[in-house]
Amino acid sequence: MEQIIRIRDIKLISIGNSKGVCIPKSLLKKYNFNDSLLLEETDNGLLLRSKNNKKLSWEDTYKSMAVEKEDWSDFDISISDGLGHEEF
Fold first, then answer.
1. Do the Cβ atoms of 23 and 34 come closer than 8 Å?
2. Domain locations in the chain?
3. In terms of DSSP bridges, do strands 37-42 and 18-21 run parallel, antiparallel, or are they unpaired?
4. Residue 17's pLDDT is what?
5. Spatial separation of the C-alpha atoms in residues 7 and 27, rounded to whole Å
6. In a 3-state reduction of DSSP, which class is residue 77?
7. Strand partners for 46
8. End-to-end CA distance of the chain
9. Cβ atoms 20, 12 nearer than 8 A
10. What is the per-residue pLDDT for 38?
11. What is the four-CA torsion angle of 43, 45, 50, 54, rounded to 10 degrees?
């Protein structure tokens, strides 16, 4: 499974004594960003998250995976390698 990384060049804009960024409307909708966000500092940089981000149930997760129609055929090889029955 290949992860697609999208990079956008955005500019900081002055807002009083602070700086801000403009987030494109398509990303606001895609990530459910409304009036306020959570800003998290990580070892890899800053992470913006929606406050409305609820944890998916297993059922919601399966439905979401089905919609993506991802190809998991490579995973079949590791299931059939026979190591699942070995004691370590």
1. no
2. 16-83
3. unpaired
4. 94
5. 12
6. helix
7. 41
8. 28
9. yes
10. 87
11. -30
3-state class (DSSP) for residue 83: helix
Residue located via tokens 């960003």: 33
Beta bridge partners, 38, equal 49
CA distance 21 to 28: 12
Q: Name the CA radius of gyration of the chain, rounded.
A: 20
- From first to last of its 88 residues, the chain has per-residue pLDDT tens of 566 778 888 899 999 999 999 888 988 888 888 888 889 999 989 988 887 766 667 887 778 778 877 776 776 666 666 665 666 5
C-alpha 65/C-alpha 1 separation (Å) is 13
Residue owning tokens 């998250």: 49
**Cα–Cα distances in Å, from 44 out to 17, 32, 40, 41, 69?**
26, 23, 11, 8, 29
